[in-house]
Amino acid sequence: MKRRTVVVEGPLAFRMRRLAAARGSEAGLQILTLPLLAAGLAGGFRRPARSQDVEPAIRSALDAPGFAELEAIRELPGMTRSIAWTLSAVWDADLSLAGMADEKARLGDLALIERRVSAALPAGVLTPRDLRDAAMARLEHAPALLRPVTLDRLSTVAPVWRPLLQALGRAVDLCWDDPGTVDTGWFPKRIVAAPLPSVAAPEIVSCADPHAEVVEALRWVRELLATGVARPEEIAICAPATEPRDEHFLVLAAAAELPIHFSHGVTALSSREGHTRASRLSG
Description:
Blueprint: E1 4-7, H1 10-23, E2 29-32, H2 34-42, E3 47-48, H3 51-63, H4 79-92, H5 97-100, H6 105-120, E4 125-126, H7 128-136, H8 142-145, E5 149-152, H9 162-168, E6 174-177, E7 190-192, H10 210-227, H11 243-255, H12 272-282
Parallel strand pairs: 1-2, 1-5, 3-4, 5-6, 6-7
C-alpha cells in the first residue's frame, strides 16, 4: 500500500475528494486541509482554532478594560464578529500584531486582544501562526507522517502557510496540481498545470431581483435534468454572495421538489425543527 497525502481547500472539496477516493478504492490516502496538515505535523493533540473557540475568547478579551482606541466601542453589538474577521485576515496574511503594536493605537488594541485570545484558547488549540510554527518545529517527522504531498487544485495559499510548504518541500516530495492562481512564484517544487477544458459560450439572463434570479436558476436546473443534458451531481449554482438568495432557494426549491444541497450550510432557523428548538430555548 502506497501512502500519500492530498491537501484540498475547504469542507466541500474535502467531502468531494473523500467521495472520489471511496469510489476509486484509493487505499493509504490522507485527505487534509492546510490547517489539518499543520496540526498533524505539530502533534501533541494540537488542532487549529475554530470560530467556536475564537469568538468566546474574543468576548472575554473585550469584557476586560485596558484599550486605547476600542474602549468606547468594545461593548457595541457586532464587535465580536468584527474582531474575529479582522484577526482571521491578519492571521492569514501572516502579520505580527505584536510587532506593529507601537505604530498605531488600534494596532496596539488588536495586539492586546490577540494576546488575550491566545491565552484563553483551550489547551492544544492554536491560532494559524502558532500552529504553523509548531509544525515547522517538527519537520523531521514529515516523511513518516505525510509521505508525498499533493496540493489538489488549491485556488490560493494564504501567506501564513507558505513558509511551512517551502520548508516541507525540502523534506518530502511536494507538488501542486492545477493551481487556480498565477501567484505561484513562491512555491518551491513542481507545479502540474492541467489543460484548460473547453468552455461553453455563456448565456446572459437579466433579472430584476434575487427572487427572479433564483426562479431562473431553478428553471435552468429543471431543463438540464428534463433533457438529460446533465445529472444532478453535475449541476452547480454559485454566486459571489449567497446570502440575498438563500431564503428564496429554500422556499422555491422545496416548492419545485428540487433537493438543493447548500455547500455553505443552512441555518437552524430555516427549518421547522430549528424554530421549535429556538422557541423552547427562549421560553
